[in-house]
């Protein structure tokens, strides 16, 4: 059996001009995951990332801690990169539903000025996702919901099809991508996607088992969802984030 570990990136820079970079807390979360795996002598086999900056930064911080190396000593040329692991364009999805939020500063002001702003924003974003998923406005989006689902499933199948003997495959990606892969494996309906996505913790790990031969070969089975014991054990609630 090969094991596939889907790692959601560390906390990104929500509300800033460039969301696609880790916050200092996001890098810390990734280092905690690396130390957690090092303490359990988990081997490093195949490392895969999406093409986004936050994926690479999470991988670098995690692996440096895991291998007890400075980040500058890592050989990223050994990592695989697959742009199909990238997140959907959350900025576009939000702005098509609420045009005022095309400006990230407007989102930040909304969160600061609105009572219970995080909950109110989550409701707006859920409605934006529903609009995107509906298929009624496909011409307005660079990538449709169906196209996103398909590329996430294809990215997973590409890893399952590799015959390099890797037993531990670690994939650094995004929450939406992980949610779409889980939907592909479990078959839950589209309406549950947004809630599933919101529940995923930064640097949370979703584990799959992939039979290499015989019954089930070429498929994967979910054995662990959104695991973040590496953060819980530290008893620091600030380390557990969702953006």
UniProtKB/TrEMBL annotation:
Q: Which UniProt keywords apply?
A: Hydrolase
Protein name in UniProt: Histidine phosphatase family protein
Q: What domain of life does the UniProt record list for this protein's source? A: Bacteria
What PANTHER family does the entry give?
PHOSPHOGLYCERATE MUTASE-RELATED (PTHR20935), SERINE_THREONINE-PROTEIN PHOSPHATASE PGAM5, MITOCHONDRIAL (PTHR20935:SF0)
Q: Which Gene3D superfamilies would you find in this protein's record?
A: Phosphoglycerate mutase-like
Q: Does the keyword Disulfide bond apply?
A: no
One Pfam assignment: His_Phos_1
Q: Which InterPro entries did the record assign?
A: His_Pase_superF_clade-1, His_PPase_superfam, Mito_Ser/Thr_phosphatase
GO MF terms, alphabetically ordered: hydrolase activity
């Amino acid at each position: 059996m090969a094991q596939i570990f889907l790692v959601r990136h560390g906390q990104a820079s929500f509300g800033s001009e460039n969301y696609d970079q880790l916050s200092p807390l996001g890098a810390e979360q990734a280092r905690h995951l690396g130390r957690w795996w090092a303490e359990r002598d988990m081997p490093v086999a195949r490392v895969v990332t999406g093409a986004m900056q936050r994926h690479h930064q999470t991988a670098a911080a995690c692996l440096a801690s895991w291998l007890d190396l400075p980040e500058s000593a890592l050989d990223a040329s050994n990592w695989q990169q697959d742009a199909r692991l990238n997140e959907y364009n959350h900025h576009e999805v939000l702005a098509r539903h609420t045009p005022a939020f095309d400006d990230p500063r407007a989102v930040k002001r909304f969160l600061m000025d609105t009572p219970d702003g995080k909950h109110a924003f989550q409701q707006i974003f859920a409605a934006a996702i529903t609009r995107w998923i509906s298929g009624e406005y496909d011409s307005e989006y660079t990538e449709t919901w169906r196209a996103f689902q398909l590329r996430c499933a294809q990215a997973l199948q590409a890893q399952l099809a590799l015959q390099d003997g890797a037993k531990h495959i670690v994939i650094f990606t995004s929450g939406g991508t992980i949610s779409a892969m889980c939907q592909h494996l479990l078959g839950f309906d589209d309406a549950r996607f947004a809630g599933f996505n919101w529940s995923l913790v930064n640097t949370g790990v979703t584990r799959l088992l992939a039979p290499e031969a015989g019954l089930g070969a070429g498929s994967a089975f979910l054995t662990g969802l959104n695991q973040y014991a590496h953060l819980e054990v530290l008893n620091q609630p600030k380390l557990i984030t969702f953006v």
